[in-house]
Task: structure prediction
Amino acid sequence: MQTTTCRHLWLLLVLLSSWRQPLEAGPPTVEHLSPTAGQRGTRFSLTVFGGGLGATTEMMLYHGGVTCESIEAVSDNEVVLRLAAAADCLTGTHPFRLRTPQGVSSLQIFRISPLPVVSELEDNNSIETAQAVTPDVTVTGVIEAGDVDCFRLSLKRGERLAAEAEAI
Result:
């Protein structure tokens, strides 16, 4: 009786050790993108960082006026989306998702601006090292914990400056 039990136990161990459930990755995840905006009436690129992005097959856009012309996988954690925004594209927030064979990412957003887009350049952490910008631009960047960003622009006496900040 004991020999039969040992044989059954041994057979069970062999079966369990050979049984493998395939490891399947979940849907892609998006941690952040850079830049976070593009100009209306231009072609521009968004670099998306996250996980499981290397097999991205589609950028699902929810508003008209922007088309995805190509998707280039840099690695499994990074893809470059080449987009075109029509001249009459609505400005503001444009939601999107990325599709891979493993699923669909959570909803993400980028913005379309009527103004030229300028990326923030580090080291702009003080007045002395402030990044020079011209009026009538959209500046995109990231503020990390404890980060300070300074920008410098020239105005003539009597000119007004209007600035808007958006953060997520």
Notes: The longest strand covers residues 66-75. The chain is about 10% helix and 40% strand. Residues 47 and 153 are 28 Å apart (CA to CA). The mean pLDDT is 88.
